[in-house]
Amino acid sequence: MAFEYEALTRVAKNSSLTSGSIVQIPKVYHYDQTHHVLILQDCGDLPTLESVLLNTPPSIEVSAQIGHALGEFLAKLHVWGRENEYMKKTFENHITPVTISLFTSYGKSDATEKELVLTNAEKLVLNEIVTSVIESMQQRETFTMGEFWRGNILVDIDPDTTMLRQIYIIDWEMARYGLPSHDVAQFIPDFVMPPRFKYYLSSNALLSSFLLTYKKLCHLDNQDIKTVATHVGMHIFVWANGFALKYGEDKKQFVAIGTEYMMKAWGQDWSWLERSVIKDLF
Q1: Three-state DSSP state, 177
Q2: Closest by alpha carbon to 278, among 191, 197, 219?
Q3: CA distance 103 to 52
Q4: How would you class 200 by CB atoms within 10 Å of its CB: exposed for 0-12, middle for 13-18, buried for 19 or more?
Q5: Where do the Aminoglycoside phosphotransferase domain residues begin and end (predicted)?
Q6: List of long-range contacts for 125-128, beta carbons under 8 Å, 24+ apart
Q7: pLDDT per position as a tens digit, 57-101
Q8: Following DSSP, what letter does each residue of 221-258 receive, concatenated?
Q9: Dihedral sign for Cα atoms in the order 278, 109, 138, 127
Q10: What is the reported pTM?
Q11: Residues 17-39 pLDDT 10s
């Protein structure tokens, strides 16, 4: 809780992140360190971005606006974090999010041996990938939000005008120093979906705008992009059952998709990656 308090208060004080921005974070009203009580702004009954995209997808224009705003906020957060000595010192020993992330993200896969159709050589590569991913989770390059996914983003869209009014990013308890590519990668997997769904065009516009804006403000080299693609694949692979239930597809399909992303990233198949969901990072 102490680290979430520090994250929220320090980010709020950075005018370059929040002043005049459509993206905001909950205000901190009270923090009792002794009794571990943190009172935050109530953002009301605003829906999550996940819910909005799945149930009432906004127009392509509004979707692109959301993506741009989120990409700008995250890029500025990462640039700020690289140079902020106070944040580095405060969060340098915050290892709990790493442990939780490793367990929840990679502790147990939804893919069973029966569904994992790999050659022995591919299985060896997969073991190397898992080891590499775990090692990358220990690296500390900049301040990261830690749980940057659609379920932690609240969206306020005017029901009458359908115009975007506000975006809130919530749940900062996993904030830590890590790789910026991890935040970017965590946002992407939910956008890997069959194109027949009604929300495909809105989702595609949002992700494209997000990646293009982020890339413009916070450069990612090929190694960073490889890390993004690897984590996207690992996330889909591990949470294949959840994706299958969400989209009404066979779990095997998402096991295969996750595996393909990991293998293509690991093999640095740039031509394939440039046509994938992360294409706008190039």
Answers
A1: strand
A2: 191
A3: 28
A4: middle
A5: 2-194
A6: 125/263, 125/266, 126/259, 126/262, 128/266
A7: 999 999 999 999 999 999 999 999 998 888 888 777 666 555 545
A8: -HHHHHHHHHHHHHHHHHTHHHHHHHHT--HHHHHHHH
A9: negative
A10: 0.89
A11: 888 899 998 887 776 677 677 77
